[in-house]
Structure formats: structure tokens, C-alpha cells
Design brief:
This protein is of the alpha+beta class and about 280 residues long. Helices cover about 45% and strands about 15% of the residues. The strands form two sheets. The protein has a five-stranded antiparallel sheet with strand order 1-7-2-5-8, covered by helices on one side.
Amino acid sequence: MDFQDPALANRLSLTAVGYNSSTGKWRTEAMRSHSSPRLLYIGKGQGRITIAGLTRGYGPNNLIFIPARTMYGFEVGPTVFGQMLTIPAAMAAEWPDEPVHLRLRDVLGQKELAQLFDNLERELVSARSGHSRAAHYHLGLLSVLFERQMDLQAQQEPVGKDRTTSAAAKLVAAYSDLVDRDFRSSKGVADYAAALGVTPTHLTRCCKQTCGKSALAILNDRTLFEARMLLRQTRQPVQAIAANLGFTSPAYFSRAFHSATGQTPSAFRRLGPIANPR
């Protein structure tokens, strides 16, 4: 569960995604999850995205659906521009239950997608009566387009071995789910490995195979992303944040935070709140 007000889970919003050298890479690359689904549209540029412990490349005209409570992080290089759509939890049933990565190759589909995003954005910023209802209708049409593109991609791609169904990918996806659920506890990698019925060594080997990170790095990444957001978006005392995230003491939390970010929690907080956190 993310730190956001539960009311935000039912808010439809659209946020620009682009390179910003003045903000840390952690803003997009660190593992996080949300209480409502996200749809990432990449208009131009390329990079890599990790969802549920599986890393793959993305490029222009890619649509990437991320279900609620699913950990993800992605690179945003200088040439990347896109949009992140927050889908209200109340409309999640119209979307898939699992992550989906679509590559729109047909020009007609690309134009239709661009038009839907333009219409949705126009209604979201409009002051006209019924603009919110209209935006939700456009979101419904977008879900239909997404479903049709899923069918089209399934028809076009040859049947073969799917990385998402490999034993390693399934294990790391299960680990990611557990981490997102329990990262606030004091559990370590050994505890998660035991719950999954594997050794910590095997778990780390699979994590490195699917996303290039160790099991410990994934756990620390998720915990420290939450710490950063809590420090910048709330007024909770550092001691309370440390306790809520499962650290045995504020001093241990400060050392871990400084080791990962090069700053103390208090110094990081003084930089000010983050605008439009994703």
C-alpha cells in the first residue's frame, strides 16, 4: 500500500513523464506500487522498465499497464517523453489483472491512441460542465482500445517461450508481491525466501536473472522509496517513519538512508515536498 490518501485511489489523473536532470533517478527507477492501476504511455524515446521483478525494454508507441499493488520502476532518459495515467480503483475491473506491455505497430492504432489521450487530457483540465464524466467516458474508450490491441498483438506475435511464465519470473513475481505487502516489517531476504520455499541464494540468483538486481536490492529499493516519499510528503517525525518501516532504531534508519542516498533523512526532507508524486 502506498502512502497516499485512500481517496486518491478513485481519482482519474494524467501526469507527463519526461527526463528531468534536477530530480533523482529514484523518482522513477526505484520500486514502488500504488493502490490503483497505472497506464504508462511512451510517446518517444526508449529505456527499460521493471514490473513485478521482470525487466524488459520499451520504446515509442508502447502502452504498459501496471495493476494495483504491483511493484514497478523504469528508466527515463533524455529522449523519453510519455504520460502516466492513474486509473480509478472503481474502474479497475475494466482492465487486465496482470501487467501487460503492448507495442502499437499499426499507424491507425497509434493515431487512435493519441486522440484518446488528447481528448482525456482536454476534459481533465476543462471547466465545462460534465468534464469529469466526459473524461471517464474517454477512459472507458481507452480500455476498449487496449483490449483490442491486446487481441491484435496476440494474433501477430508467434507462439513461443514467454519470459513471464518461466520458473524464475514466477518466483520473483511472488517475491515482489510479498515485499510490497510486508516491506514495513523487519523481515529480511531469508524470511521471504523461507516463505517461498527456496534458499536466499536461489532467490537472489533468480532476481538477478530477471531484473539484474539482488533480492536484497529489491527489498531495500522498495523500503527506501517509501521513506523518501514519507519524508517529503508528510510531517511524520523521522523516528516514526523509521519505526513504521520496520527499522530497529532511528539511528539504523539514518545510516541505511545515508548509505543509499548520500543524505541524512532530515537533510533530504529540507529539500521540500515533491510535486505531483507518481
